[in-house]
């Protein structure tokens, strides 16, 4: 493996919290009478909470104050957290578990690079609270993907340079962030179709064959 470190996005890569984000945003949008569907939801992948709200509000027929927006984002997050509490170690797939362990056995340092402010809660639910060598998430950044800040911090926390780290992402915004930071990337789902992705993958387990 040519990489000394691997930085994993969380939602859409390690686990599938996207369905909970959708349900929680949908509840908020329905309450406000704002049209929201799965296609709009796809645009929220990797995007921060407030930036996600702005995308949803593109379909609103009234303007909201900053205070109202804060309240809406707060309510969405309360709904989302209730859904997260139902997650268990069963929500971590055997493929992800085995691949992480195999990469670690090859000597790679493993980090999380997620936009989510709920990263530690999610990792705890999955039984991964103490697994990673570093965690860079929504709580330690000021600029969200496609800005590279979350990955640059992750590399820094690992004590590595971007060129020595591989970023694993499911979102186009995340691949753009990796590129902007000078990282090579491995992509799943829509990220695998994106021309800026260095290593398109069909499945998480493909990681062991890279480099
Ligand atoms: P939170 P990732 C991202 O996670 C999600 O893909 C995105 O939909 C969400 O808005 C963002 O986290 C912020 O999440 O509201 O929990 O702070 O893909 O970067 O792991
Ligand atoms: Mg993601």
Per-chain topology:
Blueprint: E1 5-8, H1 18-32, H2 38-42, H3 49-57, H4 66-84, H5 94-105, E2 109-113, H6 119-126, E3 134-136, H7 149-158, E4 165-169, H8 172-181, E5 184-187, E6 199-200
Parallel strand pairs: 1-2, 1-4, 2-3, 4-5, 5-6
Bound molecules: 1,6-di-O-phosphono-beta-D-glucopyranose and magnesium ion (MG).
1,6-di-O-phosphono-beta-D-glucopyranose is lined by residues 9-12, 21, 44-49, 52, 77, 114-118, 138, 171.
Question: Can you walk me through this structure?
Answer:
- This protein is an alpha/beta fold and 211 residues long.
- It has two domains: 134 residues, HAD superfamily/HAD-like (Rossmann fold), CATH 3.40.50; 67 residues, Putative phosphatase, domain 2 (DNA polymerase, domain 1), CATH 1.10.150.
- A six-stranded parallel β-sheet has the order 3-2-1-4-5-6.
Small molecules held by this entry: 1,6-di-O-phosphono-beta-D-glucopyranose, magnesium ion
Number of strands: 6
Counting DSSP H or I runs of 4 or more residues, the number of helices is 8
Strand neighbour order, sheet with most strands: 3-2-1-4-5-6
Give the % helix: 40-55%
- What's the CATH class of the largest domain, please? Alpha Beta
What coarse outline follows from CA principal-axis ratios? globular
Brief sketch in words of this structure:
By secondary structure, the chain is of the alpha/beta class. The chain has eight helices and six strands; from the N terminus they run βαααααβαβαβαββ.
